[in-house]
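Researcher: We plan to redesign the surface later, but first we want a full-length starting point. Tokens attached.
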């Protein structure tokens, strides 16, 4: 029997690509250039499996391509808001993701941003490199404490809980959160966490707000001007979730007017074409979507995709099926 034809849309870690070559008739993306919509449509017509990433937009218009050969989208990543799930289902496509394996690395990046924003890390680094540091003085670059402050989480899934654990056990932070459904009571007890009734409540109470909800139409601009105006003047906003959860213009205005102390961002609306308004703000810490970017995590994400593809092609239910 011939091997299934598999397309990997971007360059993956070498060890995973080696396994893919052994198992499948695989097309890799050596140049690592993102595919166009036309190339994605043609991929759906010519491959049994397509394995996209966050940068591959798969709206209904692409998924409705005629004469499709593709039966499964093995997404390399936990978030799948770049895929129109309803259209995937209508087209009989199975969709899988990679939950669990990037929890700790993404929570680490949330804490990195929180600490950098709180302690003005990126600003200090820029100052030193620019030769503008003229020596220690008692009132230079004063910032905010992290230890003992209140961390507010919007969403309380795997990554939020991992972030809360690092913050609470490592930095003695108090935890408040909003989540539509009730989490495991043992987690609440472990973290002595307070469940708030609304996002607004978290925005008012927290010194650091970290976003952990999924992206997509339901959460688009959840954090808008009105929400940002509820934040304390010394508060910081951290986003490792999805860029479009935050109204960039409203956040830029708040940072420029110093209505909040800072923001730490790993994801952006329309990334990588980020709003240039962010670039001149000293109180914005900007990372290039590094949440899951450790070698071991990216290997583990690839292994998850491999396991999901193997299950599918062997006629079993893939463990991480989302459609
Ligand atoms: C991934 C992420 O690197 O998994 C996710 O949802 O946001 C990232 O950390 C990216 O999605 C890869 O597709």
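Model: Full-length starting sequence:
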């Amino acid at each position: 029997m011939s091997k299934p034809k598999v397309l990997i849309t971007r360059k993956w870690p070498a060890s995973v690509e080696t396994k893919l070559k052994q198992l499948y008739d695989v097309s890799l993306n050596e140049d690592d250039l993102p595919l166009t919509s036309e190339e994605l449509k043609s991929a759906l017509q010519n491959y049994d499996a397509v394995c996209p990433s966050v940068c591959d937009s798969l709206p209904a218009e692409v998924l409705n391509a005629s004469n499709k050969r593709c039966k499964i989208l093995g997404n390399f990543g936990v978030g799948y808001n770049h895929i129109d799930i309803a259209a995937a289902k209508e087209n009989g496509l199975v969709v899988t993701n990679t939950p669990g394996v990037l929890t700790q690395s993404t929570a680490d990046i949330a804490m990195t941003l929180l600490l950098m924003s709180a302690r003005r890390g990126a600003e200090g680094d820029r100052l030193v490199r620019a030769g503008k540091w003229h020596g220690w003085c008692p009132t230079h670059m004063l910032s905010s404490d992290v230890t003992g402050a209140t961390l507010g989480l919007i969403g309380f899934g795997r990554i939020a809980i991992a972030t809360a654990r690092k913050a609470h056990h490592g930095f003695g932070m108090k935890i408040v959160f909003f989540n539509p459904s009730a989490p495991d009571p043992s987690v609440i007890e472990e973290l002595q966490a307070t469940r708030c009734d609304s996002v607004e409540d978290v925005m008012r109470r927290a010194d650091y707000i970290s976003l952990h909800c999924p992206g997509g139409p339901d959460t688009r601009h959840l954090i808008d001007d009105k929400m940002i105006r509820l934040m304390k003047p010394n508060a910081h906003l951290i986003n490792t979730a999805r860029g479009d959860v935050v109204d960039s213009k409203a956040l830029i205005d708040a940072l420029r007017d110093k209505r909040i102390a800072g923001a730490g961002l790993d994801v952006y609306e329309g990334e990588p074409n980020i709003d240039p308004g962010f670039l001149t703000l000293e109180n914005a810490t900007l990372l290039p979507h590094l949440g899951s970017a450790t070698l071991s995590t990216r290997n583990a994400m690839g292994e998850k995709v491999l396991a999901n593809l193997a299950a599918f092609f062997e006629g079993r239910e893939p463990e991480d099926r989302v459609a």
